[in-house]
Write a structure and sequence with these properties.
267 residues; 4-stranded antiparallel β-sheet; Arc Repressor Mutant, subunit A; alpha+beta; cytoplasm; RecX_HTH_1st
Length: 267
């Protein structure tokens, strides 16, 4: 048996040094100190010493986990990865996770429900994008599927329309055809199905008016003509014309834009 001969505070708040039989033995947290009723003069057998040390490891792991949980919800995997990154022993990690789950401080289903709701309003995504994020965070497939049931088709279309309107502004200098293609691509990349993307696009006008389409075509002609300026005028003309077709401009618009440029080679 060993006797606690001194308990002294550490510089780190909430930590204490224990001396056994007049010699420093180990440090413990305030929680462990209270849990085991550690006071000066108490005698400890070897088994109790090991139990106290083990409890202190768990308590330190809990502190790391709770600090990580304080600003936001986390998944079990995220907390586990955090603890392992902080060099917490795997056996201790399991105990910390079990404690947090039992106290309902960790719940992947709650996390998934919250994430689905959040991603409909802030930095929105479609169901596929959300499912990928949740899977990466370690949420089980069945939990993801259940959480996504709250993301109705109507809500998906509503969110997709807002994203489509934003993307349309970004691509306003493209031809109407390419603009529509890029908006659809942006929605699919955000995790919406092609069907939802199509329904969203059908609710907004992505067709440029004639003046804007002319301005876009002329801008592309000038840019392409400059890019191919080292080619002979005839080759440059057809090179630019072909590129304009690939950019989605109509034939008559291409002819109009090409007519605005002097294709004669510089002397």
């Amino acid at each position: 048996m060993q006797t606690i001969t001194k308990i002294a505070t550490q510089k780190q708040a909430g930590r204490y040094n224990l001396e056994l039989d007049g010699r420093f033995a180990f440090g413990v947290s305030e929680n462990v100190l209270a849990k085991f009723g550690l006071i000066k003069g108490r005698q400890l057998d070897p088994a109790m010493v090991e139990a106290i040390k083990a409890a202190d490891k768990v308590d330190q792991g809990l502190k790391i986990a709770l600090n990580y949980l304080s600003p936001a919800l986390r998944t079990i995997k995220q907390v586990r990865d955090r603890l392992l990154a902080k060099k917490v022993e795997e056996e201790v990690v399991d105990q910390v996770i079990d404690h947090l789950v039992a106290q309902e401080l960790l719940n992947d289903a709650v996390y998934a429900q919250h994430y689905v709701a959040t991603k409909q309003a802030f930095n929105p995504k479609g169901p596929r994008g959300i499912a990928m994020d949740l899977a990466q965070a370690g949420v089980a497939e069945e939990i993801i599927d259940e959480a996504l049931m709250a993301y109705s088709t109507e809500n998906q279309i509503e969110v997709a329309v807002k994203l489509a309107e934003k993307a349309a502004k970004t691509h306003r200098r493209d031809s109407s055809v390419i603009r529509q293609q890029k908006v659809a691509q942006a929605l699919v990349q955000k995790g919406f199905s092609f069907d939802i993307a199509s329904q969203a696009i059908s609710q907004i006008d992505l067709t440029n008016d004639e003046e804007d389409e002319q301005a876009n075509a002329l801008r592309q002609v000038e840019k392409l003509a400059h890019h191919h300026r080292r080619l002979p005028s005839k080759d440059r003309y057809y090179k630019v014309k072909g590129a304009l077709y690939t950019k989605g401009f109509r034939g008559e618009m291409i002819d109009w834009a090409l007519d605005q440029i002097d294709w004669e080679e510089e002397e």
